[in-house]
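Question (not urgent): is this output format expected?
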Amino acid sequence: MRIIIAIITSFNLMLHPVFAQNHDELQSSGEISKTKMLRSFMLFNDTLPVNDKESGNVEIPNIQWYVKDSVLYISGEGDLPDIEPSKGDESPWRTNEWNVKKVVFSGKIKTIGNNMFGGHPTLESVVMCSSIERVGRNSFLACGKLQEVQWSDSLKFIGNLAFCRTSLRHVRLPNYVQFELGGAFHDCYALQFFSFPDSIKKTPLLDLGQSMVENFELQLSPVTDTISSRSIGSVNVNHVDIPSSVRVIEDSAFYYNPKRFLCRNKKMEKIIMHFTEQQLQQMNWGKKWGAGLDENIVTFIVPKGLKKVYEEFLNRKYNYNFVIEESDQ
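Got this back:
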């Protein structure tokens, strides 16, 4: 019955003198779309694909979208362009944001542009299609309810502040992705787990900032070669497992400055190492690699049978006073 009413309404709309007068002009100029032709259907059904310019002032060619059951479906091919809020830009689905809790991408979309979803008030989940290669800066900035992202296996780049101030809890990035240093995941207060992709051999300065989680876990790539300066200290982690692949530990790799963090009582407590005696001797250690750790009571968990070797190397050679304990394994 609703379909019949919708058809009659749509037919009446096309007979309206204003519509009839402008129809040929709009059609010849390419400004009329199926959405406009079937606008009356939207009174009865919110699942029709829309690409309505009146929903925002930024047009996106080759992209279709619609909202159903609080899910925004975006499909097509190409790039979602950059949005510049300072210039008054708005995405086509801006007026629907209060109804959207999840965004699902499909098709051959390659880029999520700068600021595309920044400040979305209700967004909780994002599902990327396998073709997405790039996430622009500020693209999900301050989406305070965003807890989960299903990553694209093709993802190669994440821009600065892309997921800053979200509620992400578990981040395991796909291989070969790179991200701008100093803030792609800055101030993710709820983050419980972060895993570096296997493509990253030198730990970057993540600067996760004011982490409020008590037992935050950081997982380094099994092919990590270098622990760079301040890279571990910047994530406010209290324990870390150093893989045996590491060959360089730079100055202040574990540096921790409590003045930079809101949660000031969290300090490094435990560092797990897997190096053999030969690996210890051959590694390139920065002169102040343990800076900041000497202010804490840090325990090093080392391979069984090598406690004295580590005590001699870590404490006497570098004049630290760490607690050395052997692993049970």
